[in-house]
Amino acid sequence: MKIILGNPKSKKRLLVLAGVHGNEYTPCIVLNNIMQNESIISLLREQYKSITFIYNVNNDGLKNNTREYTAIDLNRIYQYDFSLIDKIKDLVKESTHIIDLHSSPHCGNFILINQTDTANSYVEYAINNGLNYLIYNQYSTLTIKHQSQLLNKISVTFEMNGIDFVNFNNVKSAQIELEKLITTFHTIKIAKEEPKYKPQTMINAVQDGIYYVNQFNELNCLTLGNVRHTYKVLDDNDYIATYPIKGYYTTGEMVLLVQKHNNI
Ligand SMILES: [Zn+2]
User: Fold this and answer.
1) 3 state SS of 218
2) Which residues of 193-205 are buried (b: 16+ CB within 10 A; e: fewer)?
3) In angstroms, rounded to a whole number, what is the distance separating the alpha carbons of residues 170 and 109?
4) Around ion ligand 1, which residues have CB less than 5 A away?
5) Cα 254 to averaged position of ligand 1 atoms, centre (Å)
């Protein structure tokens, strides 16, 4: 853990977490790079009273390449009670702004927004700052993000590509997006209102076959009868949050998770 003191006049306190899930190594590398970027750190010191980085929350999971910490999902901690968890809860309580870094297989770099009464504010913040986002309505209420929002914290999950090992191209592309997020996060204003933006769209296999996305963002399926089908399921500004995680899908299985473009 590293705590950096910033502007004593600010009331904002930033907490950034990486490695909550032990098999998600990309966030650890990206966060380490951010911590070494002096211009970002000095910008954060102007905006926040303190900046706390926890760069390897789940030490045990990171060593063993397991998502959990001794069989416990640390991103569901609000149902448990033990010392490591209590420490995270205390840090959350002291903070005003929280960024929790995660990674998934075959996904883009985006802010994951729960479809709650504060979702509109996060969506508009993302659009205004050119950040990719996915609004999700099948979220767990036990996550650090959700629980900290219930405590009136400003809190996001940032997803990046790659679990189990680190690929440098994933690090580079995630870092570009995270820099945009971390340097503008203090500007976000939260209002509670009825969610008005459309949440995620799941695109499912319409027949059995080998699926992939081509260079025109078209979904293709090659059947084992060697017939290729092309589906124009995406509009120009739609954002693919997760790509196929395997080759062969049977009818009805989800192939892509997409955020349809939202007009303000
Ligand atoms: Zn995760």
Assistant:
1) coil
2) eebebebbeebeb
3) 9
4) 21, 24, 102
5) 20
Q: What are phi and psi of 88, to 5 degrees?
A: -65, -40
Cβ distance 18 to 54 under 8 Å?
yes
pTM score above 0.85: yes
The CA 171 to ligand 1 mean position distance, Å, reads: 16
7 C-alpha to ligand 1 centroid (Å): 31
Reference 100, options 148, 29, 36, 170; nearest CA is 148
| Residue with the two structure tokens 């799941």 | 202
Q: Which sign, positive or negative, has the C-alpha torsion 205, 210, 213, 218?
A: negative
Give residue for tokens 């997020």.
Answer: 181
How many of the other CB atoms lie within 10 Å of CB of 173?
17
Inter-residue contact 208 to 194 (CB < 8 Å): no
Instruction: List pLDDT tens digits, range 178-205.
Output: 999 999 999 999 999 999 999 999 999 9
Q: How far is the CA of 139 from the centre of ligand 1 (A)?
A: 13
Q: Which domains does the chain possess?
A: 2-187 (3.40.630.10), 201-258 (no CATH)
